């Protein structure tokens, strides 16, 4: 009988229930990225303009993808199916493990806070309920799928991603054919604001924590598909991250966009579009909640050596740790939607993009096995140094934002 030791404890899995397809892997990355970040980008980019947003998306997208591919190689060099915190502990020791765990938690909790806040606002507007009740209605299906695990998450992400794409392509086409795009609304640019837009762009792309889960799901039957799933998921993410601000900013201009873009955008197109836009927003946050919630939970298992299977008590405790604090913070109005994303992007981006560089170097020296795929030219020292510098500056930006030391308009 095949061994089925729990993956969080570092044992072999080999369980058919863990296996996912290439497109489910793509959907997990896409679903993790297409969440609160995409809903806040038009508002966050309103001062810099669409060209500044594109520059920020290209820089953040390319470097984050490179960092994810480093994590992919590290995962493929490691015999045991570990999460980011476990990989960091194996290759960088306890300090590295706690740093990457902090990055995962800060990024993940920042996202979940924004989902509770954003979903509560949308459902309050759609259903006429209190925002806290709206956030609770969103949280229930989110928590249920995370509890069920990787396979349920992959299937759910794949199904809803198709619906999301159909809705957003319809809305963008509706915008272009209907009210139209004002060239002036998408043509203005203020390069001064590229830096603050970068922090939101980093958050929108940051999905390194999903890669070990994908490696676990693909390793048994198609490990070489892992980098392809990463790149495909990130390219699809980049396309949508550019398309929605183009349509929304192009139609409404910088003064018309709302903090959660689907509210103002949908109202501008009419009642039917309003409901479609906000259904898209809810689905986007839900898919991201699933991917982020699952990886947060499995990283808790890894970091504290809790059993991920066969112990409902530990599973419930991990789920409570990752779901309850964000909900309460949002319910008491302690963090705004865009501000939560900006802080999370800077703090987590530095840790989760820089630490993989160190893990890759160490894994190449002392890894368990020859990987089915290697990063190649993108692991050149110049590329690694560029990644460290850019995301290190993003971290500095977040520190200065928190201290209130930035110029007007940057915070």
TrEMBL record:
The keyword Transport applies. Its main location: membrane. It is found in: Cell inner membrane. GO terms for cellular component: plasma membrane. It is a multi-pass membrane protein. Pfam families: Trp_Tyr_perm (PF03222). Keywords: Cell inner membrane, Cell membrane, Membrane, Transmembrane, Transmembrane helix, Transport. InterPro entries: Amino_acid_transport_2 (IPR018227). The chain crosses the membrane at residues 21-43, 49-71, 91-113, 133-150, 159-177, 189-207, 228-252, 272-296, 316-335, 341-360, 381-406. The keyword Magnesium does not apply. One of its GO terms (biological process) is amino acid transmembrane transport. PANTHER family: OS07G0662800 PROTEIN, TRYPTOPHAN OR TYROSINE TRANSPORTER PROTEIN. This is Amino acid permease.
């Amino acid at each position: 009988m095949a061994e089925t030791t729990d993956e969080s404890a570092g044992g072999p899995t080999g369980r058919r229930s863990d296996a996912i397809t290439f497109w489910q892997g793509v959907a997990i990355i896409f679903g993790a990225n297409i969440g609160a970040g995409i809903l806040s980008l038009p508002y966050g980019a309103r001062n810099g303009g669409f060209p500044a947003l594109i520059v920020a998306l290209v820089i953040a997208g390319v470097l984050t993808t490179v960092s994810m591919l480093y994590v992919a190689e590290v995962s493929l060099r490691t015999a045991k199916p570990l999460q980011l915190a476990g990989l960091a502990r194996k290759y960088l020791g306890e300090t590295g493990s706690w740093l990457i765990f902090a990055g995962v938690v800060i990024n993940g909790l920042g996202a979940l806070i924004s989902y509770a806040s954003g979903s509560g606002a949308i459902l309050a507007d759609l259903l006429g309920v209190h925002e806290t009740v709206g956030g609770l209605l969103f949280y229930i299906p989110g928590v249920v799928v995370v509890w069920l695990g990787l396979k349920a998450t992959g299937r759910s992400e794949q199904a809803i991603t198709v619906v999301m794409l159909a809705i957003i392509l319809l809305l963008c086409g509706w915008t272009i054919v209907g009210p139209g795009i004002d060239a002036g609304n998408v043509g203005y640019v203020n390069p001064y604001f590229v830096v603050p837009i970068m922090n939101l762009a980093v958050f929108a792309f940051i999905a390194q924590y999903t890669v070990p889960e994908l490696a676990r799901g693909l390793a048994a039957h198609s490990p070489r598909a892992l980098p392809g799933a990463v790149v495909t998921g990130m390219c699809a993410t980049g396309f949508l991250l550019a398309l929605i601000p183009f349509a929304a900013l192009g139609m409404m201009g910088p003064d018309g966009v709302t903090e959660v873009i689907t509210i103002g955008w949908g109202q501008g197109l009419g009642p039917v579009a309003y409901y479609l836009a906000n259904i898209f927003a809810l689905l986007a946050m839900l898919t991201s909640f699933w991917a982020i919630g699952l990886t947060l939970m499995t990283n808790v298992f890894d970091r504290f050596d809790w059993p991920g299977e066969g112990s409902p008590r530990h599973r419930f405790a991990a789920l409570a740790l990752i779901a309850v604090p964000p909900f309460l913070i949002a319910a008491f109005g302690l963090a705004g939607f865009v501000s939560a994303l900006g802080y999370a992007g800077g703090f987590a981006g530095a840790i989760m993009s820089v630490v993989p560089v160190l893990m890759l170097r160490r894994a190449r020296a002392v890894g368990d096995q020859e990987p089915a795929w290697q990063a190649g030219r993108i692991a050149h020292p110049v590329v690694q140094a560029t990644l460290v510098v850019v995301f290190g500056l993003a971290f500095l930006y977040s520190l200065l934002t928190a201290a209130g030391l930035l110029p007007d308009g940057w915070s």
